[in-house]
Amino acid sequence: MTHTSTSFPDGFLWGASTAAHQIEGNNVNSDWWRKEHDPAAGIAEPSLDACDSYHRWEQDMDLLASLGFTDYRFSVEWARIEPVRGTFSRAEIAHYRRMVEGALARGLRPMVTLHHFTVPQWFEDLGGWTADGATDLFARYVEQCAPIIGEGVAHVCTINEPNMIAVMAGLAKSGEKGFPPAGLPTPDEETTHAIIAAHHAAMKAVRAINPDIKAGWTIANQVYQALPGADDVTVAYRHPREDVFIEAARGDDWIGVQSYTRTKIGADGPVPAPENAERTLTQWEYYPRAVGHALRHTAEIIGRDMPLIVTENGIATADDNRRADYYAGALDEVAAGIEDGLNIQGYLAWSALDNYEWGSFKPTFGLIAVDPETFERTAKPSAVWLGGLGRTRELPRTSA
């Protein structure tokens, strides 16, 4: 076995990602907060204080910067900024601006996500993304974020994983409980069109705030792999769940690639991983090569000139050695993509912290452990290793 390295391209983003609802705590005006406290929703546990990062964001940034990371992706919470329709909180806007300035002061380039799964309760009550005027309401919120992102923010993500938003809407409309054994539910077509329209309106609003901002959105890549004879089935299955959202990014400044595992497709549709496959705490197949497949497929759909940023990639595990092994395998794939001429401009791990994973704190994705009682942060060995790569500016390679 030989060990080589690939140098980062100039300006390469090297960081970790979080989402407001998953780390801030007490996001009481969001749709998810209401859902967490509704017995009928069947949520295992509520977010409550989460990681208390609303108050401890400086600690989080200090730790990431000290580890060697150069970039931090975090989201702003629409339900805090506009808790009541048409009422915008100057204090919350100032809070998120302080986070931007705090990141810059620590040498962390902020990537700001404007929507990461949660919406204000009033927006959900209107009917959500498919309600009359929803696109304009989202664009107005983006415009109100001008003081946050207008200066010093080079990258903005409009909407995180829109394909999953459409999938969840389809699941809600079908009345089904939970996901199938493999693959994803059918996305809601109306929500697909609505979320794409909202993204395009948000792109226009961001560019009006500052045309120098590089804006795009991030896609949940499922790495659909066709079994023999199932190529056409795979294309038909993948298109509404993934490719239509990649295609909607044409004209954007970049596209975010987010992958964790793979989904095999047979003649009759998705095929579960074998019983003896290694699985993570989310019960996904352990498959570090996923990110390489996702990068190549995204480039195939949207063109090799489009800048690609890995905005999420990681593993839920209690074994930090397996976490480090997963990242090593994933980075081999990133390095191979760079060597093959893909326009890969960054890699941000999911996630910076052990956080609230949409119903439970048990799936630990974090590079940094968080004590649920004291909120003390402790960097795991994988964080020290991964952050250190940001200092060397070299991507490790392992080949047989």
TrEMBL record:
<dbReference type="InterPro" id="IPR001360">
    <property type="entry name" value="Glyco_hydro_1"/>
</dbReference>
<keyword id="KW-0378">Hydrolase</keyword>
<keyword id="KW-0326">Glycosidase</keyword>
<comment type="similarity">
    <text>Belongs to the glycosyl hydrolase 1 family.</text>
</comment>
<protein>
    <submittedName>
        <fullName>Family 1 glycosylhydrolase</fullName>
    </submittedName>
</protein>
<dbReference type="Pfam" id="PF00232">
    <property type="entry name" value="Glyco_hydro_1"/>
</dbReference>
<dbReference type="InterPro" id="IPR017853">
    <property type="entry name" value="GH"/>
</dbReference>
